[in-house]
UniProtKB/TrEMBL annotation:
Belongs to the AfsR/DnrI/RedD regulatory family. PANTHER family: TRANSCRIPTIONAL REGULATOR REDD, TRANSCRIPTIONAL REGULATOR REDD-RELATED. Residues 104-245 form the Bacterial transcriptional activator domain. InterPro entries: AfsR-DnrI-RedD_regulator (IPR051677), BTAD (IPR005158), OmpR/PhoB-type_DNA-bd (IPR001867), P-loop_NTPase (IPR027417), Sig_transdc_resp-reg_C-effctor (IPR016032), TPR-like_helical_dom_sf (IPR011990), TPR_rpt (IPR019734), WH-like_DNA-bd_sf (IPR036388). It holds the Pfam family BTAD. The lineage of its organism: Bacteria, Bacillati, Actinomycetota, Actinomycetes, Kitasatosporales. This is BTAD domain-containing putative transcriptional regulator. SUPFAM superfamilies: C-terminal effector domain of the bipartite response regulators, P-loop containing nucleoside triphosphate hydrolases, TPR-like. Residues 939-962 are annotated as: Disordered. Keywords: DNA-binding, Transcription, Transcription regulation, Two-component regulatory system. Gene3D superfamilies: P-loop containing nucleotide triphosphate hydrolases, Tetratricopeptide repeat domain, Winged helix-like DNA-binding domain superfamily/Winged helix DNA-binding domain. Residues 22-97 form the OmpR/PhoB-type domain.
């Protein structure tokens, strides 16, 4: 372990070495040093074993390369553990040396040179470069000769030479030409064709009063270039030659010792290329504040180029936001602003090559076209030289990807780069630390203000419903809002309802969002994002547009596209990077409403067989998975009968009850949409499977109206299937859903139809369960005697049918109705028999119902402590099952016991929780009762406790948003 204050360093800029508190440490023989060096190059990152073998031995690995590697790694671990806290970790991605990269001379060298290049003060920059170059102890990786190390050595040699030249530039700016003249003469002899070296030597000679020697050296390098390469010197060196010939005063040192000189300052133009700011700009305060944070000083002393990227789908207002911010901060960029539309997603042109953009930038910076080098790298180098040290903004608008941007990045931290793109540009984040701002839709208030500004307050206020419709159809997309505003403003005599009705039809909404040219045609804007996708990604996008539901999971998308999940994830990530889908939560994907319309259009362009097969796969996947999850929620439930039940092939594997509830929770709205789709497209069997499989989950969540809607809409499909047993079951389930909603007549009608169908089919189990539902209906209606008669009939069936779960359920029902009729001893006997049967067969749901019954019996027999015990156990089981519907009732029953035993605070607590659940389940009758009891408890509570009770009118039962 490293002691307090102990420092450990590693070196590769010379022989491979390690030091502890400045004292060399033995890191083993040459082969072991190779492995250490290979890890040090990627300090802190995992390196696969095969890569390490290739690095260390190249084309001549040991016979058992991996075994040899393991041995060296093991020995290195022992060495490192003795000298410091550093270790070599084994990870799934490979071996990782856990050392701070700044403790490795190579990484320290690169960090120092990066900081030096971003330093505006020449003296401080020179000190950093000197410190960086002082880390070298000879040739990098001395003594190691493999192809990989040779390539790394060549790269580091070039970085070292660049740092030496950068230091020479700083010394020249500081007026220290005499100090480095000998060094420059030697370097020019070693690098006779390097124009940058030649320029430094010429400037040093000229400032030292040796102008003739400077001109002679120019002629010398010119002759060599012509003779050996067949080319003249580049524009920068030719310009320096002309300025020396003309004795340009800008080349002379400013008066006073130690004053830095910028030799080109006198002739630099100041470009002002930004387009005009948007005439109307509303909202985006949070985003503007985020961009303002770019101008703050870095938290550490490392100066780097600030690069910010604004991303979002086409039409989201990226360019407007960037221009608004840039014009608000022009004073921060006194040396100019460069702008280029990279046409990455332009409907009328191809993406702009970086070389063409560089030529435009160089022209704006005062370089004559004839002086611009032909080589792209030379162009980029000249551009970086000209903007170095200048406080400039470079705006790169509408970029296709990171490769288009990288050649345009300055090397000086005094510059700020602003990028807009429909691509995510994660590659630029990885390589250059780009700060990313994902632009979302506008809030409703800001969207409304856009219409108010364009149309006037009076016109907007005069048609509130029409305006709400326009806002809803534009879905917060600024371009769509702008198009709508422009079209409405062009016809001030037309009511806004005309435009609203045009946008109402989803099939032609994109036709309406067109203001007359490519830039204001929303479909054309989306086209430019779509056409750059490869075939597989484009087809995935189109199929997603057809998928029913507000979003889609990765597993469902994989079934839709018939792709393995890892491949589907890659394609979804590509679409996410293009801002055509959003991963709203991990593993779930959705589209902006207008993008979804465009994707649907593309989906209908697919061949019929491709489209139909994909949607049938999706419906089948949802149906089979729903059936499997329902089996986990209610294993005692009689499996869905009939020859048309779905195969479980392709179903998602779900582990347990919690996972099944979570799946239903996440997929519920999608399942409802898939159910509607199945009905509309004649997939009757799958529609019935979905309706049946949803029943348990919807009951436990208390979503009875969804339950009724789903089942009722399925009845016509069951008539087509001609399955009487399924029809009977659907009617019985519909009745069960209507009973708690006090729809007594409708429930009885469904039950009569169910019992008739069951009797016709000779289905005794179906008849039994229907009698139990009759009992529930009459109980809700207040007739417990009639309820008991049906419960007894149910029990008679169950006693001979051999189903212990249903027999336990029947025993409990008979006991329950005896209890309500005051027959407590008989009730307790039936319920205790039911409880024993439930526990013997691990029937948790039945056990919870029976404990509720026993709690009721104990409460009404005066055994309040026993009642609370029973209800508490039932509540625990309800929560374990995820049954929020019955959880609410258990809490309400506990509240009744607490009220009876004069415990108002406890009663208030459980009734408040029951009230919240009842409201969420739209159970108005139960919610009103709980609220009334809470009001009655208030006088007996301390002020703080009573404040928690909610007051007001309980809303009528309403359908959940779906």
């Amino acid at each position: 372990m490293t002691g307090a204050g102990m420092t450990v360093w590693f070196g590769v800029l010379g022989t491979i070495a390690a030091w502890r508190d400045g004292v060399p440490a033995d890191v083993g023989h040459a082969q072991q040093q190779r492995v250490l060096a290979a890890l040090l190059v990627d300090a802190g990152n995992a390196v696969p074993a095969d890569v390490l073998v290739d690095r260390a031995w190249g084309e001549a690995p040991p016979r058992r390369g991996r075994e040899a590697l393991y041995g060296y790694v093991s020995r290195l671990r022992r060495v490192l553990s003795q000298m410091c806290a550093t270790d070599i970790e084994r990870t799934p991605a490979g071996y990782r040396l856990t050392v701070d990269p700044h403790r490795v001379d190579m990484h320290q060298f690169r960090d120092l040179t990066s900081r030096a290049r971003g330093q505006g003060d020449a003296g401080q920059a020179a000190a950093l470069w000197e410190k960086a170059l002082g880390l070298w102890r000879g040739e990098a990786f001395t003594g190691i000769d493999t192809p990989w190390f040779d390539s790394r050595r060549d790269l580091l040699d070039r970085e070292r030479l660049t740092a030496e030249l950068d230091l020479a530039d700083a010394r020249l700016r500081l007026g220290q030409h005499d100090r480095i003249l000998v060094e420059l003469l030697a370097r020019a002899e070693a690098q006779p064709l390097d124009e940058r070296v030649a320029g430094q030597l010429m400037l040093a000679l000229y400032r030292g009063g040796r102008g003739a020697d400077a001109l002679t050296h120019y002629q010398s390098i010119r002759g060599r270039l012509v003779e050996e390469l067949g080319t003249d010197p580049g524009p920068a060196l030719r310009l320096l030659h002309q300025r020396i010939l003309g004795a340009d005063p800008a080349l002379d040192l400013a008066p006073g010792p130690g004053v830095a000189v910028d030799e080109a300052a006198a002739v630099r133009p100041v470009p002002r290329q930004l387009p005009a700011p948007p005439a109307t700009f509303i909202g985006r305060d949070r985003e503007l504040a985020s961009l303002d944070g770019l101008l703050k000083e870095p938290a550490d002393d490392r100066a780097v180029v600030v690069i910010s990227a604004i991303g979002g789908v086409g039409g989201m207002g990226k360019t407007w936001l960037a221009l608004r911010w840039a014009h608000e901060h022009l004073d921060r960029f006194p040396d100019g602003q460069l702008y280029a539309d990279l046409c990455g997603f332009d409907p009328s042109s191809e993406p702009m090559p970086p070389g063409m953009v560089l030529r435009g930038f160089l022209d704006a910076l005062g370089i004559d076209t004839q002086e611009m080098p032909a080589d792209p790298e030379a162009l980029a180098a000249l551009y970086r030289s000209l903007v170095a040290g200048r406080r400039m903004l470079i705006m790169l608008d509408n970029a296709r990807g990171a490769d288009q941007i990288r050649p345009l990045l300055p090397g000086s931290a005094t510059c700020t780069v602003m990028v807009t793109s429909r691509s995510h540009l994660s590659g630029l984040t990885a390589t250059h630390g780009c700060q990313y701002l994902d632009l979302g839709t506008l809030p409703d208030d800001d969207a409304r203000q856009i219409l108010v500004h364009a149309l006037g307050h009076d016109r907007v206020a005069a048609e509130p419903d029409a305006v709400s419709g326009l806002l809803r159809r534009c879905a917060g997309l600024p371009l769509a809002l702008g198009i709508v505003a422009a079209r409405a403003a062009a016809r001030p005599d037309f009511p806004l309802t005309v435009l609203t009705s045009e946008l109402h039809d989803a099939a032609c909404r994109l036709d309406a969002l067109n203001a007359g040219d490519l830039a204001t045609d929303l479909r054309a804007v989306f086209d430019t994002s779509y056409r750059v996708l490869d075939h597989s990604t484009a087809q995935t996008f189109a199929l997603l547009g057809l998928a029913p539901g507000p979003d889609i999971s990765l597993s469902a998308a994989a079934r839709l596209t018939a792709l393995p999940a890892p491949r589907a994830r890659v394609l979804l990530r590509t679409l996410e990077s293009a801002h055509l889908v959003q991963q709203n939560i991990p593993g779930r994907y959705r589209m902006h409403n207008l993008v979804r319309l465009y994707a649907t259009e593309r989906g209908h362009d697919l061949p019929d067989d491709v489209r139909q097969a994909a949607l049938h796969r999706l419906v089948g996947f949802n149906a089979t998975t729903a059936l499997a999850c329902d089996r986990l929620l209610s294993p005692q439930r009689t499996p869905l009968a009939g020859p048309r039940t779905a195969s479980a092939v392709g179903a998602l594997h779900v582990e347990d009850v919690d996972a099944a509830m979570a799946w239903f929770e996440a997929e519920h709205l999608c399942l409802l949409a898939v159910h509607r789709f199945a009905l509309e497209h004649g997939l009757h069997a799958q529609a019935w499977q979905l309706a049946w499989a949803l029943d348990t989950f919807q009951w436990r969540r208390g979503w009875l109206l969804d339950r009724i809607t789903t089942l009722r809409s399925t009845l016509p499909a069951l008539e087509v299937l001609e399955e009487p047993a399924s029809m009977a079951l659907a009617h019985r389930l519909l009745a069960r859903a209507r009973i708690p909603l006090d729809q007594h007549a409708e429930a009885l009608e469904h039950l009569r139809r169910a019992i008739a169908l069951y009797e016709r089919a000779g289905d005794r189990a179906g008849q039994a369960q229907t009698h139990l539902n009759f009992a529930l209906a009459w109980e809700r209606h207040g007739d417990h005697a009639e309820a008991l008669s049906h419960a007894v009939r149910n029990l008679r069936f169950r006693e001979v049918l051999g189903d212990p779960h249903r027999e336990a359920e029947a025993l409990n029902a008979v006991g329950w109705y005896h209890a309500h009729l005051g027959h407590h001893d008989q009730a307790r006997d039936y319920c205790e028999r039911a409880l024993a049967l439930c526990r013997r067969h691990a029937f948790l749901e039945g056990e919870a119902f029976t404990l509720d019954s026993l709690g009721y019996i104990a409460h009404h027999s005066g055994s309040h402590a026993q009642a609370l015990d029973h209800y508490g156990r039932a509540l625990t089981l309800r929560r374990r099952l995820g049954d929020q519907y019955e959880e609410a009732d258990a809490l309400a029953c506990m509240g009744d016991v607490y009220r009876a035993t004069d415990r108002p605070a406890d009663a208030h607590d459980v009734l408040s929780r029951a009230f919240d659940l009842y409201r969420g389940q739209h159970r108005a009758t139960e919610a009103r009762r709980a609220q009334r009891l809470l009001e009655e408890l208030k006088p007996a509570l301390p002020a703080r406790a009573s404040d928690g009770a909610e007051s007001g009118t309980v809303p009528d039962v309403a359908h959940r948003t779906a």
